[in-house]
Amino acid sequence: MDFIDEIRKHKSHVLIQKDTIRTEEGTKLRLIQPFIIRLGYDITDGAEVIPEFTAAPGTSKDARVDYAIIKNGDPIIIIECKQCGEDLDKHYNQLCGYFAFTKVKFAVLSDGIVYRFYSDIDETNKMDERPFFEFNVLEHADDKNIVEKLKQFTKEAFDVGELITKASALKYADETKRIFREQLESPSDDFIDFFLSQVLPGQSKTKKMRDKFKEPLKNALMDFINDRIREKITEAIREKPTKDELTTKEIETVESDSNEGIVTTDEELASLYIVKSILHGIINWERVNREDFKGHCNIRLVSRHSNNDGYSRFNFILASAVVKCQSTLAPTALRCNSH
To answer: Could you tell me the pTM of the whole model?
Structure first.
């Protein structure tokens, strides 16, 4: 079984268990231990996983972290667990203290659903204030790119040197995106001044000038982002498959629709290819199908959960294209249909 399938299976397990867990011990037993197993570690082998690991020998019992992953006799990852649904922000200092007493480079804080991965990228032997990676079992289990990042912490793939390098890159990338997002929403004076110096070189930067420039700057940046999105969509349309490349099921649907007086337009097919291109690498694009009607066309994501007949009970409508004589498409998230 591929690692992503293991994680998807774990997600199903979490969905069943999470609402019945009332204690931290229950979270450890029913959510976090199974997760550690998914990473390839044997929780029954003291040479691989030590529960209640003493982070600071000779000190009080409180200096014991819930789990330590061991390699060659030394801890490589420590994991501090909290009750499912607990606010993890409240327990950062506790894990930070454990990190300071150990030689590990990676520490995890989790409630069994969210796993926050920390290191000492900013200052050696001092745990960073922000995690360099966060994995949410319920939100990320189907995201191939994020699951690949998680895979680096498996027993088979773990390489401390390589992980430190990648952790640094992840942290800097996430911080850059966070800062850029904040600036898009509310540009700071320094951010505005940077662009003012390029657009109006040599002019003094007054509050009046910043206020005047702020909204045009925000609009220009959003226009740039939208332009890039349109370029990607245009490329996807140009690279759309021919009829020979369509799956047998799609061909049969086209022919069946024609026989019933339903015409599948190029724009409707283009919307299918756009959605598949967007989701490519995230989910199996064969799960994305087209459902054509006389008045409109739906793009459907078929659920992985099926009934006894093998048919999906819940199918998500990703987009709908209204049949009109127009040259542009704007696929819009709509609704969930039950069958």
So the answer is: 0.62
